[in-house]
Amino acid sequence: MIRNAIILFVCFLMPSVSLAQKVRILGFGSSFMEDAFYRVPELLGADTSRVELAFLYKSGGSLTDHIDLMRSQQPAYTYYKYNNDLGEWEMHDNTNSQYALLEHDWDIIVLQQSASESGLYSSVKNTLAPLIDSIRHYQPEARLAWHMTWAFARYSTHPAFAEHYERSQQLMYYRIISVGSRVYRDEFGDEFQYLIPSGPVIQALRDTYLESDNDFCRDGFHIDFNLGRYAVACATYESLLADTLHLDIRQVPTMPTKDSIYTDSDYALIRDVAYDICHDTDSLVWSYIKDDRVYSRRYYNLQGVPLADSPKRRIVVRQERFESGRVSSNLIYKKE
Prior knowledge:
Distance between the termini: 76 Å
Number of helices: 12
Number of domains: 1
Strand order of the largest sheet: 4-3-2-1-5-6-7
Number of strands: 12
Strand content: 15-25%
Largest sheet: 7 strands, mixed
CATH topology: Rossmann fold
CATH architecture: 3-Layer(aba) Sandwich
Shape: globular
Structural class: alpha/beta
């Protein structure tokens, strides 16, 4: 009797974070999903046992691909799962989506459009709903997150960069913002509970001293393995895990890495930017694009609150004053 009372008393004194259940997160995507997930375990430190991370990878995988593969159940994915005991990612080839969806009761499922179509709402509006319906068939209680990817590097030679975005990074970035806003706060606003703003984080870092000739990309469109992957991992952590783990990204210590040319201050700046973008709801201004012009019925903040009515504009400039004290004036879109 006394022993049981002592156990109950000790459990009462223990922090609630240690009693929390494991958070299970599954992603559907391409190499851009791999980039978003890959370095998250590095940020978790001792908390890796409380998070189950996995993603289904298909090279260039689009929403249409995911629908087709879910209907056919072809084993066309590489299934990445983080092994918390070994501290490494494991790869399982020739996996179908049903296997991954039924492996656990997933808490969060992350979706994205393929990189080349990430700024084309026409590629999303008729494909996202059936994909969500198919996922709900297996995981009716899972919460959904939208991964907002990044614009290609200014020097990118990717064919889609010319075909869809006139080789303009600003145009591609603006269209990605537009698609993300319509998914997260408009047409699919009732479906998505989370937004991972990887693209805005990378774009903001392109305005800092950390920017270099590679534009945070390793080949013109994939993010670089060093600071770029670290940055999108920070965005993923802050968007999906910070509240549950009771530790925001600014408080996460820099882990030892092989990137000896970078300092703790460099990584701290990235964490600050990721925190700012994820939490300053007015820092992402939602507006829509039509016929290659800025077309704004209204601007919305991340919470869906309408801001001042605005006329059509060819140039939109936003000034941001972040909690960390950093001030940035960014050109959101300019027809080049």
